[in-house]
Write a structure and sequence with these properties.
about 300 residues; Rossmann fold; Alpha-Beta Plaits; four-stranded antiparallel beta sheet; 10 helices; elongated
Amino acid sequence: MSSMVSIQNVTKTYSGGFKALDQVSFDIKSGEIFALLGSNGAGKTTLIQAICGLLRITEGAIEVGGSDVVLNAKNAREKIGLVPQELCVDTFESVWNTVSFSRGLFGKPKDPGKIEKILKDLSLWDKRKNRVMTLSGGMKRRVMIAKALSHEPEVLFLDEPTAGVDVELRKDMWNLVRKLQESGVTIILTTHYLEEAEEMADRIGVLSKGKLLVVEDKDVLMKKMGKRQLILEVEDPAVNLPLSLDRFHYTQKGSFFTFQFDVVNEELSIGALMSEIHSANVQYLNLQTKESSLEEIFMEMTRI
């Protein structure tokens, strides 16, 4: 799979000396859904603005679809659709005119059928004649997405797209994202709803204090960094467990013992753990297994 976005040694230093980005390098593949994660102030929005040509970097280079965002800004920008965090569509114009005008800004010919499809996909068709300023916050968010899609971009940036929106819009949006990916559009998203990134993303990048901590396939990241646990509820909290169980690094909280096991190392596998528990004749009421969520991995990676 070829690269759609190439980010090489990108640094952004402000006049006061603050480094918002520090030697960030990675590629985003064509047609993938890439989740860029990080706490507030990590540099996510700065990086997105730099890729979109809205902010000049101090060092490094960025290309979108083979076009340098500085040296060939027009070509690069035409490939990009951006949905920013802030709602900035509080206009007197109708929804139809707002989205159609956005398409015209990129020099695209009029295509009522394309605008109609976008509005229907975003459940905006029945609002097409309404003035944008009369819409709810969730509907305005939909209009922003429609504007970003109006010129048929190859890359779509979604910067915290579901912040403050209702469940219905969130479902509509992710259904649309899947359809866009199927049509070949590359999706880059930031989100504080990490279960969405876990559900949607093909690959994940994590920023912390302007530095890139990791870029990895989601499944590989969760396998390498996720913890696998067996939680055992015993009858007697004062039970003395055999020393042979110490290698599983367990903790106790009341009647619950939490063991770490490994899916690769046979000596620390869940089978070995269960064998030791039964050999020691540990009396238990219940047991369950648990794997780390993406949110737990993220918190572990970015904790101070």
